[in-house]
Every structure is written in structure tokens, then in C-alpha cells.
Amino acid sequence: MNNGHKMIGILAVQGDFELHAMALDRVGAAWKLVKEPADLEGVAGLIMPGGESTTMLKFFNEEGLGKAVKEFAAQGKPIFGTCAGAILLAKEVLNPAQDSLNLMDITVERNGYGRQIDSSVARGDCPEIADHPVEMVFIRAPIIRRVGEGVRVLGRSGGLPVLVEQGPILAATFHPELTQDETVHRYFLGKLNGGGK
Prior knowledge:
The protein is an alpha/beta fold and 197 residues long. Helix content is 24%, strand content 31%.
């Protein structure tokens, strides 16, 4: 996949950022790790991985990364959040309520599927971006309880929205980096070239 050598930043303060790097390697995309605001220089798109959203928020506040990511989004640059990353992007977070970046008009319930022991692998339908069922790994995953008017549901599993987008922002409650299916990462790369709605 040639995305014009545009650089993807992977937020690397905590969580499974190395697996996202491996997924980008598989599709031939250039990437760099982002640990502080200065690392966003020259980055065309940003991936916010899974992990612990409260820990990531603390780091955001201490290092000024939260403000930097909001400014990055204000420039219209694509951001892709998975699991905890999706929680951070949400307008409203429940169970319990917590702060977020408020970049996507969705309401998310943390640990909606239960604790770590309730992790699962499923196949979901993403008819607008894939002609096959997409393998989805859920680990202490959030549930998207409300989707705002400007948000498009791209994927569902078990009747629930699990992949959504609003403009250049993409969020998944599952972990596409834990599978060999490149659909979601390739879709995100397409947004760097004006793809997506």
C-alpha cells in the first residue's frame, strides 16, 4: 500500500502500540511513535491504541498531549482510536464517567462487555469497507451506546456498532491489530488521501 510516504503517528504512551506498528508494516505504511507533542510534527494521521484510558488521560494532562491531539484534529487530520483510543475520542464516557477529548459524537460505556476474562473473538459485518466478515478481537471492550447524527456506522457485531467514523475520525471498539485482517488499517490509510466521508 503506497500512501505517498505520508507518516502515521502511533501514540506510544501506553497500550499495544507495537502491534499497530506491525500492522502498518504489513501494509507498507511509514510510521513513527508519538510520546510527546513535538513528535506530531510531520505526522499526517494518528493512531490511538488500546490500553487503559484513565492512565492515558493522566499522561495527556501531564505532558500536554491531549491539547496537541485536539489541535491535530482541528487541522482535519485523520485519527483512528481502538478500544481505549475510542473511549478517549468519545464525547461522553460512562461506567464510570470520565473526561475525554470529545472529538466524536458518540457515547461509550467502558468495559461494556465485562472484564478481561470476558474477552472474545467475533466476526462482524463492515459492508461499506469489506466484502467479507471482519475478524474482531474484543478485550475489556467498550460499547458504543449512542451514535450522533454526524457519525456513520461502518461495522457491527452482535447488533452493536463497533466501527464508526465522523469526518476524518475513526473509532473501533475492537482490536484490528490483533488479527491478520488488514481491512480497517487500509481504510484508515485511505482517509489520509481524502477517503471516507
